[in-house]
Amino acid sequence: MAQHLYLYEGISERLRCHIRQGNYRSGERLPSVRSLSRLFNVSVNTITQCFRQLEADGFIEVRPRSGVFVADALPAPARPDNIAHFPLLPVEVSLSEDILHFMEPHARSELVRFGIALPSPQLIAVDRILKTMREVTRTHALESWDYTHPHGHERFTHQLSRRSINYPVPIDQHELLATNGCMEGIELALRALTQPGDTVAVETPTYYGTLLALGVMRRRVLEIPTHYRDGICLYSLEQAFKRGQVKACLLSTNAQNPLGFTMSAERKRRLVALAVKFDVPIIENDIWGDTVFTGEALPAKAYDETGMVIYCNSFSKALMPGLRLGWVAPGRYHRRIRELKQISNITTASVPQIMMARLMESGFYTQHIQHLRGHLATQTEQTSKQILECFPAGTTARQPTGGCVLWVGLPGGRDARQLFDLALAEGIHVFPGSVFSAGPRHSDFLRLNAGNPLSEQNSRAIQRLGDIAARL
């Protein structure tokens, strides 16, 4: 067995070997969590995490109220050159060329676009937004012309703070800083907390923009195992914190891209408690948080009593990417991030802030979000269903809790980078899973955008993708 595995990983490997050797056959029920915890003399939580890893790897199927069963079709054996499932050592990030290569086709309007994660403009009241912008430049001409306060326009930050009215720990208006999109907030946070050569813990898979930023800034990455339903493994994260391996943790807790999970309130509280206990700050990317389909999805920041969470968000996904309007709530790191913002670009443009303040004041944004959530829930469900119908047997495409992306697992170790090339030649843009990790993982996954209605053209494109995948 490989050395330096976490406890649950070692048990997972032993069960995986038993399944591979046929000691537990396809469809056969595995021993219960409590039975295995007694057998291996470990906690129930350790066995639960073990099952989560085996489920994510495709070896088992968890059936509510029935138990845990060996999957009908087992994944192909890992290639010998693959590294451990989740590396315990920090790694360098060098994905910029790959990411640029896979992003560039989005600019070609003739393609069927499943690559970049964006809701369709058909779901956005673009005319209403632009009309409000014109009114702002007419009725607030001098404010539109001038610099705004470095913290942001008062009307804008006031409306943002009111969004936290139901947080256990509300965000004060004076804590907020307006940014040029969510990524500027993340960059400012990384610059405030870390230096070149420092290590940052991230989910795996995680948003490729996160990895790109870390690579450009010469930070190293420690990838933490992440479950498609529960989110980042808090046990593994705690071990990394305990060993002093990381200076910060960068993650999403709501409608995570690309897995689509939303962490429970209890797990968010535990995440914040770990940050406080080990004095490791959390950078929270909540850009898809407003799109969570059902229920109350507060961010981890809502439970942050000591200022250990730097909260980053924007309206790029939920309303209009061209606005490039975001914000950051830096907590105890406010002064340093304010200094970095001022020397970087002084302030954020006035017009988008005044416009968004008016859209929030009028109730438009709240109504829009309700409309958007309903459509995205329907579109992701319909697209997921068609993928499973058209792709080879053994393909996985689970319904996300929010957002508009699907994390599609290809059976038999098929390489999504080959699928990218073949699909692009036929006028279809997708995004391969390999760039959602700093290491050689997720190459048999692809991320598909379901932000567009399932039109006849998109339906045919999915069928074609399925045909291509079957040939790989």
UniProtKB/TrEMBL annotation:
Q: Name the PROSITE patterns on file.
A: HTH_GNTR
The record's Gene3D superfamilies line, in alphabetical order, gives: Aspartate Aminotransferase, domain 1, Type I PLP-dependent aspartate aminotransferase-like (Major domain), Winged helix-like DNA-binding domain superfamily/Winged helix DNA-binding domain
Statement: the UniProt record of this protein carries the keyword DNA-binding:
yes
Mind telling me which InterPro entries this protein's record contains? Answer: Aminotransferase_I/II_large (IPR004839), HTH_trans_reg/aminotransferase (IPR051446), PyrdxlP-dep_Trfase (IPR015424), PyrdxlP-dep_Trfase_major (IPR015421), PyrdxlP-dep_Trfase_small (IPR015422), Tscrpt_reg_HTH_GntR (IPR000524), WH-like_DNA-bd_sf (IPR036388), WH_DNA-bd_sf (IPR036390)
Domain HTH gntR-type as annotated: residue spans: 5-73
Superkingdom, taxonomy of origin: Bacteria
Tell me the PANTHER family matching this sequence: HTH-TYPE TRANSCRIPTIONAL REGULATORY PROTEIN GABR, TRANSCRIPTIONAL REGULATORY PROTEIN
Protein name in the entry? GntR family transcriptional regulator
Q: Specify the species.
A: Halopseudomonas salina
Q: Lineage of the source organism?
A: Bacteria, Pseudomonadati, Pseudomonadota, Gammaproteobacteria, Pseudomonadales
